[in-house]
Write a structure and sequence with these properties.
The protein is of the alpha+beta class. It is 57% helix and 13% strand. The chain folds into 2 domains: 2-90; 97-240, OmpA-like domain (60s Ribosomal Protein L30, Chain: A, 2-Layer Sandwich). The protein has a 5-stranded mixed β-sheet.
Length: 253
Amino acid sequence: MNKVILILTTFALLGSCKNQKAEILQKQVDQLNEQLSKTQEANSSLLDRMADLSIINKSGAESIRSSLENLNRQNAFIQDLTTKIHEKDSINFALVNNLKRSLLDVNDEDIQIEVRGSAVYVSLADDMLFQSGSAQLSPNAKGILGKVARIINDHDGVNVLVEGHTDNVPISNTRVKDNWDLSALRATSVVRELQRNHEVDPARLTAAGRSSYVPRGENNTSFGRAKNRRTEIIITPQLDQFFQLLEAPELMD
């Protein structure tokens, strides 16, 4: 059915659409569930009427029965898909709660923990982790990252993307070439710390530099620039379970 194909297409794009995809998919699942329910009721009623009136031949009955079996398979697929979505949401809820408990002693102004789309974002102010213009972690940063690492290690079904962000004030010194360089070096510093000192599996880690091009505040004020100088640790449930569903035998139209 066309709407089943839409669901499969939506999940093929999960890696790049971080926002709104869960909400859109849930609406599609609800709509398809409603359509399947109505079709099943109509076909069942038709079978009963034809059987009572003895006006259906064997071939026609088998055709309708085959359609009903196909609808049941599609319904089972949708239910499995819905279950996986709920599991992902449960993982994110547990991650947020555990991270907030672990980081209770950290100033709320320096750290933000929230769910955006399908991922949990831990946003850390740059002065918590680094000296100005430097990619070397401070002793305080290592303690904070250790707490985050414990939560990551407790959830082996998640991947971790570390993004470095800067404000738009150009930087160039003997240690870094520009804001791109600084943001990337800071991300790799965090990744190395998680791997080397806190035993996070490096296969689950990705480092990325975003420079000043994904701001959270206005760069024309000191307050806005401070918000933009940050490191984000983005924790995402692995998508293997969804891709395995896509590899299942193709459903009939």
